Automatic annotation (TrEMBL):
This protein's name: WD_REPEATS_REGION domain-containing protein
Amino acid sequence: MLQAVEDHNEYVKRAAPRLQDRGLLCAGVPCSLFVSISHSVHGRYDWRLYGNERHFSVRVANAIARNTAVLVRLLLKWRPTVYVVLENPLSTWLYKLPCFKELLKEASFFFVLTYMGLWGMDILKGTRLASNLPTLASLERRATKKVKAKFQARVARKKARAARAGKSEKCFYTTGQNENGQRIFTGGPDLAATAEYPQRFCTALYTAWARALEVKPFV
């Protein structure tokens, strides 16, 4: 582990000078084994934050999370003027991991809640951003009853247009019940597409960064 940290340190030490002052790093750690929809596999609880590491996939997910936390901490050590935005779904366990709790505290990151569905995605997908970008609060969105109704109407219109064109409806997830009667979610064939950020979200993030730099965005 110490050798891995030393290797990361040397890599970031060499790479950091190539980043411009107040540059922006946006990182979305793979979330598939940190969210509630995959709980039956990862088995994360408050008393077992790193989950069921008997599964190779869980060990890999944890290694990626640890590496990301180390890399960001080293980056901010060698380039403290860089802005960082970390992204994960609302139900993620990622930010509860000790390595991330240490990073968030050390770097004085704050959280911003938003919903990708309010930026153009076809599911709401509550998202929590952790960052030191001072203008990021402009991306905050709340899924109020009125906002949800507007979102659902937009998606319904889109589904109707797809049906008229003879296209099949997208399936992001299905719901059911387990043996205890609890509601469960199962990922569908189109769930992977939700890893892509909507264009409007990207534009808003870029605009927030430009505001922090006090320059006019090219949009």
